[in-house]
Amino acid sequence: GHAAAQARADLTLAELRAMLRAAYAELYAAHMARGINTEVQALVHDMGLSASKRYANGIAAQQDVIKARTEQTMLLAEAQELNGRYARASVIINSLVGDPLDTPVPAPAGLPQTSSFMDAWKGFEQSEGNNSPALAIADREVQQRRASRELAARERYPDLTVGVTPVQTGTSFDTWELMLGVNVPLYGGTRAVEKEQVAMLAAAEDQRRAKRLSLRAAAAEARVAYEAAGARQKLFDEQLLLESEISYRSAIAGYQGGQVDFDTLIEAGRQIRNARLQSVDAAVQQQMAVAQFERITGVQP
Known about the structure:
6 helices; elongated
């Protein structure tokens, strides 16, 4: 029917929106990681200069200089991998919007807002999934099965037909003939059909209940993932990143003063990189949770 077709169309559109959101989040992650990579390369470059100066003055081992160069090479290799990651996300986005696959996709300025997600989830939960096109499809199947069962039930009863025909005598109609007809169905056959339709209706209702439960479970899982990612991002931004930057400044001062070794300095630089990447990843995971919710339920946040 039209309602079922519309529900399927809505669900397909929601899935495409979710795929686009996920691809855009991946593009953002690659873009931000490239920026972080560039910043850390600058840090490692400064480390290398410091190591070279200390080596030239005879107060550091040549191994420190080699370690700095090795770290720079690893970062350059990571940059190449991130370029490929960005290109793959660009191809997916172009395919979804119908552009040529090699069309350049500009770097994203940020991620789409997700502030409406919790309202969308609450509305979905309060309606027990009734605002979902995924459940509308199951509802339509139940309605069709119920109509088939009612039709099969009517087939069990005899059909009575009544006819009245005028009887002509000479040139006039002075009598009427009443005809009664009874169509008696074969009881066994109609009863079997009705039992089959009853069973199919029960199966459709069971499938709808199962669909409702699975949708609510998936929506709840998306909400938990969304909230957990938000909590992680807050922790990274407000605490871990600040701590890692303080640790790095302390390590660079300690190395220049001969109080810490070069490995400690390298590790402090890595901590800054990881803290920033984890913050980006948490933001991306929020987007993925929203996309998962929309893809499964068909409800647009």
